[in-house]
């Protein structure tokens, strides 16, 4: 459970780092 949540968080964080520059650019 903990590992899956951490993996999902890692993917969400990677997505956020990819999408955020698009929003602010």
Describe the protein's architecture and organization.
The protein is mostly helical. It has one domain. It has 1 helix and no strands. The radius of gyration is 11 Å and the shape is rod-shaped.
Give the tally of β-strands. Answer: 0
- Secondary structure: helix percent: over 70%
Number of domains: 1
What oligomerization state is this entry in?
Answer: single chain
Distance between the termini: 36 Å
Comma- or semicolon-separated keywords:
about 25 residues, single chain, mainly alpha
How is this fold's topology laid out?
Blueprint: H1 2-24
Summarize the structure.
This protein is 92% helix and 0% strand. The chain has one helix and no strands.
